[in-house]
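The instructor's notes for this session suggest beginning with a concrete chain rather than abstract definitions. Hand out the sequence below and ask the class to guess, before any prediction is shown, which regions might be ordered.
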Amino acid sequence: MADFLLELRCEEIPARMQPKAKEDLARLFADALAKTGLAAGSIETFATPRRMALIAKDLPLATTAVAEETKGPKVGAPPQALEGFLRKVGLTAEQLVERGGVYFAVVEKPGRDTADVLAEAIPAIIRAFPWPKSMRWGEASLTTESLRWVRPLSGIIALLDGAVVPCAVDGIASGRTTMGHRFHHSGPVEIADAASYIETLRAAHVIVHFSERCRLIRDGAAKAAAEAGLTLVADEGLVTENAGLTEWPVPLLGRFDDTFLEVPPEVIQLTARVNQKYFVCEGADGKLANAFICTANIDAIDPAVVVNGNRKVLAARLSDARFFWEQDQKTPLAVHAEKLARITFHEKLGTVADKVERVAKLARWLVESDIVTPAKAGASGGSDPTPEVPASAGMTKEKLADMAEQAAQLCKADLVTEMVGEFPELQGLMGGYYAAKEGLPQEVSDAIRDHYKPVGQGDDVPTAPVTVAVSLADKLDTLTCFFAISERPTGSRDPFALRRAALSDLALTLTNNLRCTKLSVLKQVVANAPIFGPDSDSFAAFERIYGHSFDSGLTSSEAEAEDKRRIAMIADEVIEFLIDRLKVQQREAGVRHDLIDAVFALGGEDDLVRLLARVRALQAFVTTEDGTNLLAGYKRAANILKKEGYQSPLPAGEGSGVGASALDGVNPDPQLLSHGEGAHDAIEQTGEEDPLAMVDDPDIGDIVAEQAHALSGLSYTPEAAEKALIDALDAAAPRAAQAVEAEQFADAMAALATLRAPIDRFFEEVTVNAEEAEKRQARLALLARFRDAVHRVADFSRIEG
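After discussion, reveal the predicted structure:
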């Protein structure tokens, strides 16, 4: 067994490309070996700014001999077919092997030295390397056949057990010579073998282990800050980037003029990080200190010289940032906002100013409609029994609405400022600072600052009422407008980040316990979309976008009704999209997607806070023994009803009442009742009733009593198990319906649990498909009643398992 070293030396490799390049080098090398039947015991890769390297251990010294077999034509095939096969394999007819009436060409391939295999593989790996960006150089670059590499390639080391593996790429021959640190080591470095590679380069001031350089930077920066009585602001991304820029990293602390601290700390940190790759520090008070930590690629004799040079460069950058900060404040945000009319949001949705106008209108409506109020925002989704009362709790609704509208009107104004033009990452944040400097209310400046939140998983979710109103309005407008112009996400394509907007909407709704029927909110938002605006030709716009023609001869009332139908259609699409995102969001919390489907499928449940509470109670129930057995009983009942083609007299969700069988969705065929035919017809069913609206109505008392008596008047005596199920349904169905209405979902599940034993006993002791038609019909009606009672809580047909 042997160890192999490969080093590819070149000019500076961009830091962002190095991690992926290490993976690609290992993959390409392993694939090249696998084609010849070789495999290394282990492969380790390294990357520094000036080299990519690989060490493969425990390689066989030679490949094994193999016999390659190629299937040919059948015996007796036309001569032309046999001749063609012989030309292909380069054999004669006598050399073929006959097996099972078919000719085979068997070619013995002797083993090869591993060095020969590697000599062929190395040039192929280099030429096939998938750099994100590459270049040609020198005179050879005049032809497209020349080598492409991330930066000019200058050297190749290829050593197998200390011996050079001879190969060449674009005139660069392999050897055992490399270069050390650019400043700390002069002249070539001879590498004896793979085992000595790492330490030989360390002696030449090159640390080839990326992870070791990261550790030196991380620990060195923290130590430098601590020695100055400061705390390093951790930034792992900056650690990684500096490790990719240095071969011998040395963190050094410097100071900048403390007058720059007048600039917002986020600006200073971003300037230092993005432009100079510097870390920043905090003082004992937790505020940003006038200190930075740079990572030198040299162990300087006088570190102060290096620090001073870096300080001057940073000072120039901070001077620019301070200039932007001061210039932007000379213009009020309201004046900045006027420039938004010059920026196109989307060609079908108008300018950013148009979007701001819609968001402001919607933010005000959310407050005035009591969807966002101090009592709701900040409630932490109801999980905290004593939530912190927001500072705006004592405000009137009108004052809160005014602030929400004002914040929305100014929330995008900083997009046209100099600072955000330089640092787009600061959008929103700078608007909040400028609003505070203008003396606007804190609620307004906070809303401007945070209205983009949450921007990703783990980000803070706003809870201040004004901020929630503006942020929610912004997300809802984005979602509905892009759906209205048929720009929906497809597969992995989501150019307008609608999935992120949906997840942010859900986080705002659930965290703040916003109780609203989402569909009605979405209809209001869609109605504000440009294609339904007062100045738009909504029919023409809709036809253009959806490719659907409308009758131009509609009356005004018909046109209004058609507009409402189309608004509802878009709102339905958005709510379904939100439910899909809810499944994704809740998956990490352990909530099953099929249970969300089971509750949402009932229809009418688009209060997402209520829906999720219902789902969690359902999940707690179906994982119990009672829940599992009840689900099995439900599916058995549903399968029987489906096989028999039986339909409930009342659809699931209608006529749900308390106490009466008819009101629970069971009304056996009149011929099965001894009396009381038509009693159910006395109650008009429109499909829009409140399920419990008539529970205490004395006018239906007689009907309830008559229906209950009618069920007891079957033309046959029900069996004990049958009667037990009837009695259990009489008790459980109204309890479950009442509990759902009162949002006591655990109680609703407890009510359903009482049906478990009766339904099990029913299937054990009662024959549903009895020979007597009246018994069969009555028992099917009873199963339908059981199924429909379960459907009051959730559509169990959607539950897996």
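Then share the key points. The longest strand covers residues 2-10. The chain has a mean pLDDT of 85.
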